[in-house]
Amino acid sequence: MKVRTMIGLLSCIALAFCLYMTPSADAASAEEEVLQVVTYFAKAMNTNDTERMSSLWWNSQKTSTFGPPKAMAFLCQGYESIVMWFNDMNKSPVGSYVRSFQNPQVTMLNDNIAVITAYSIFIQNPPVVKEQFVSQERSTFVVQKIGGKWVIVHAHASAFPAE
Amino acid sequence: MRMKSMFGFISIVTLALCLSLPQYVTAASDEEKIVQMMENFDKAINTADLELMSSLFWHSPKYSSFGPPKNLAYLTKGWEGIEEMWKTMFKYPAGTYSSSAHNVQVAMLKDDVAVVTSYSVITFRPPVVKEETSELLRGTSVVQKIGGKWLIVHDHASRLPIE
């Protein structure tokens, strides 16, 4: 009887320990999930994958972005406008635009909203001009878990200040 | 009996209306509070008020900022990281720097998190040189209600791209 009680007690402790540890495991995976947004963003841009790019943004009129090119100097609002912008970019052959993110960092504001900051290197290889343009940018992504999926609700990318 | 049913129905409708209204009232007042906070940001610059400026930011190492000047090109973390910049600016008499925000838009992501976008005109009037310079910036502020107060938890300000 004593052995059974002992086993029962140990099981309870083990269960309590597992339940206690679970939130930490979740927190770690939430950050990893959030980071995947920028990984997929770069992948979608580098492979002209419009479908993937569209799936990364919140399908809402509230979605907005400040972009680094002159054409996106002013706030681009609404999912359709943003997706249309990427569709236009994807008309160029794969490899015309190559983006990579460096040092992405996640700040969880709560379980469902996070801010990602990163630096990015953007290489433009125009097929006709045959001249490469390389720019370094700073990026902010505000992401929210909507319907169980992390999506971009706002983005702000800007060139490094020269002065 | 019919009269009683009528009163009962009207009471239920009135109660339902009363229960649904406070949500809108709260949402509106939160947006107003955020707009007020952004006005205080301008006020702090215009009056060289470091204390007011400090009260608008999240004093946590998690606070982060991409700024428009070259010395804030890379991600700055924590209030201490930007405090020096404000101190340097506020050494000049009030009125040397002035800021006015335009087209402030608030997108509520949750009851306690919002994204604010705006354009700002920053003017610098050096007391000795007597020559004015001004520039137009685009700003993203991620704000969060912490301890009942709206605070800036991340900001990204950049000059308008010229090409």
Features:
heterodimer, A: 163 residues, alpha+beta, Nuclear Transport Factor 2, Chain: A, 6-stranded mixed sheet, B: 163 residues, 3 helices, 6 strands
Characterization of the model:
The complex is a heterodimer of chains A (163) and B (163). Chain A is α+β, with helices and mostly antiparallel strands and 163 residues long. Chain A has a single domain, classed as Roll (Nuclear Transport Factor 2, Chain: A), CATH 3.10.450. Helix content of chain A is 38%, strand content 33%. Chain A has helices spanning 2-46, 50-55, 79-89; strands spanning 64-66, 76-77, 97-108, 113-124, 133-146, 149-159. A 6-stranded mixed sheet of chain A has the order 2-1-6-5-4-3, covered by helices on one side. In chain A, strand 3 and strand 4 form a beta hairpin. Chain A is elongated, with a radius of gyration of 22 Å. Chain B has 163 residues and is α+β, with helices and mostly antiparallel strands. Chain B has one domain: Nuclear Transport Factor 2, Chain: A, CATH 3.10.450.50. In chain B, 37% of the residues lie in helices and 34% in strands. In chain B, strands 2-1-6-5-4-3 form a 6-stranded mixed sheet, with helices on one face. The longest helix of chain B is centred in the N-terminal third of the chain and has 45 residues, at 2-46. Chain B is elongated and about 85 Å long. The model of chain B has no long low-confidence stretch (mean pLDDT 88). The chains are: A alpha+beta (163), B alpha+beta (163). At the A-B interface, strand 4, strand 5 and strand 6 of A face strand 3, strand 4, strand 5 and strand 6 of B.
> What's the total helix number of chain B?
3
What series of H and E elements makes up the topology of chain A? HHEEHEEEE
What number of structural domains do the residues of chain A give? 1
Mean pLDDT of chain A: 87
Number of strands of chain B: 6
CATH architecture of chain B: Roll
Q: Tell me the helix content of chain B.
A: 25-40%
- Percent of residues in helices of chain A comes to 25-40%
CATH class of chain A: Alpha Beta
- CA-atom Rg of chain A in angstroms: 22 Å
Average per-residue pLDDT of chain B, rounded, comes to 88
Overall shape of chain B: elongated
Oligomer: heterodimer
- CATH architecture group name of chain A: Roll
Instruction: Name the shape of chain A in a single word.
Output: elongated
The chain pair forming the largest interface, with residue counts per chain, is: A-B, 33 and 33 residues
CATH fold group of chain A: Nuclear Transport Factor 2, Chain: A
Enumerate how many helices of chain A there are, as a single number: 3
Share in β-strands of chain A? 25-35%
Radius of gyration of chain B: 21 Å
